[in-house]
Design brief:
By secondary structure, the protein is an alpha/beta fold. 39% of the residues lie in helices and 19% in strands. The chain has a seven-stranded mixed sheet.
């Protein structure tokens, strides 16, 4: 199919709408919507879509938007929503509930800096504050990946081996409002890719039941174990969904991690989201100059693809993790994950964290070159390095 010039928000709205329409022969779909910059265009697109069997419900807050999606999902409908930044923060209680109810809701999140001070630009802190909730999480590099991953997320979340909600994240404005050539699948293709949803634990008139009641500790702990077992099944189910997508759509939606020149790399950059586009070109240029450097783009953050990351770093001696997020007092969140993956491996691998692009700051090729130079000069891991503050020079702290 020919590519069309569309924004990331358009791509997300199209994918959500096509997925909802694909369930028209089952119990339909529902979306709870509430606007927030820079996500609003997504729900505006959904609200205008000519659905056959979908309800779009405008509500008074993000908390209620997820509440509507929870209610619809419990009734067996395909449910979804979208939000950003402080809207996600307001939604947190119900985001948690959706996960513990094992509801395959899909949420598109436009990563925007949490306030105050108020800032509408890209920062992953809004979704990464959900990292301990039972949600699958994906981070996208371009508009095509946004569209494809959103469609894949419905199939993955609704897989009976999984039955967990999924979050698809894209960088504010860098993707949400930027047009890129994007292939938009026909509705018939989406229909074939997404089976009708038959949620096994949906509420039924003929068998009334109560959800969310008080239980003893051993019952709650057993439920947590079941969630953990489902998370362990995600990588295998994801690969099945990925290859089914390739067969139906004729393109690859992308692996859980995507590597670039890592086979013999002694230095590896670890990135996510749109930073990957810039970092890949820096690595390509340095490779052309004969440097043994590689790149890992992490698409799936939850569950974290530990085995794949370890394999991709097998020849590395030093790793630089570039985080567009910050956890107070401990640095970048992807950096923390990488350190956890390699904990106990001794001192052979140096893993240094770099905080860059926070609060919407630009991440330029020269800044990534600065990371490479700094990494090479190190003989031990230290505190995270802050880049892009004031005059643009790095500052440790």
């Amino acid at each position: 199919m020919p590519a069309e010039l569309v924004t990331g928000n358009h791509a997300a709205g199209y994918a959500l709408s096509a997925a909802a329409e694909a369930n028209r022969h089952a119990r339909g779909a529902t979306c709870g919507i509430y606007p927030i910059t820079p996500q609003t265009e997504i729900v505006e697109y959904v609200a205008r879509f000519p659905f056959s069997k979908t309800r779009v419900v405008p509500v008074e807050s993000e908390h209620s938007a997820m509440g509507v999606s929870i209610g619809a999902s419990l009734a067996g409908a395909r449910a979804f929503t979208a939000s950003s930044s402080n809207g996600i923060a307001y939604m947190v209680e119900n985001i948690m509930v959706a996960g513990f109810y094992r509801l395959p809701i899909v949420m598109v999140a436009v990563n925007r800096t949490l306030g105050p001070p108020w800032n509408i630009w890209a920062d992953q802190g809004d979704t990464l504050m959900l990292r301990d909730f039972p949600w699958i999480q994906f981070y996208c590099e371009d508009n095509q990946e946004v569209l494809d991953t959103t469609l894949l997320s419905f199939r993955l979340a609704e897989d009976r081996r999984i039955l967990l909600p999924a979050l698809v994240a894209l960088d504010a404005f860098i993707l949400s409002h930027t047009q890129m050539g994007t292939e938009l699948p026909e509705q018939e293709e989406v229909d074939r890719y997404l089976p009708d949803l038959d949620l096994p634990h949906r509420l039924r008139h003929e068998a009334p039941t109560t959800l969310g009641g008080l239980v003893w500790p051993n019952v709650a702990m057993s439920q947590r174990l079941e969630i953990d077992e489902a998370m362990e099944r995600v990588p295998e189910a994801f690969e099945e969904c990925r290859y089914a997508f390739i067969e139906e759509m004729g393109r690859d939606p992308g692996n859980a991690i995507q590597t670039f020149f890592t086979d013999d790399a002694e230095e590896v950059l670890v990135v996510s989201g749109t930073i990957a586009t810039t970092a890949r070109e820096v690595v390509r240029r340095r490779r052309d100059d004969g440097e043994n450097i590689g790149l890992i783009k992490i698409k799936m953050f939850r569950p974290f693809p530990e085995a794949a990351v370890r394999e991709a770093c097998r020849s590395a001696k030093k790793v630089a993790v570039l985080d567009r997020n910050y956890a107070a007092g401990v640095g970048g969140i992807f950096w923390q994950e990488l350190r956890s993956v390699f904990q106990g491996d001794g001192d052979e691998l140096l893993i240094q964290g770099y905080l860059t692009g926070l609060c919407g700051g630009d991440v330029t090729p020269s800044m990534i070159d600065e990371v490479v130079v700094d990494l090479r000069e190190r003989d031990a891991m230290d505190k995270p390095v802050w880049l892009g503050i004031g005059n643009g020079k790095g500052a440790e702290g």
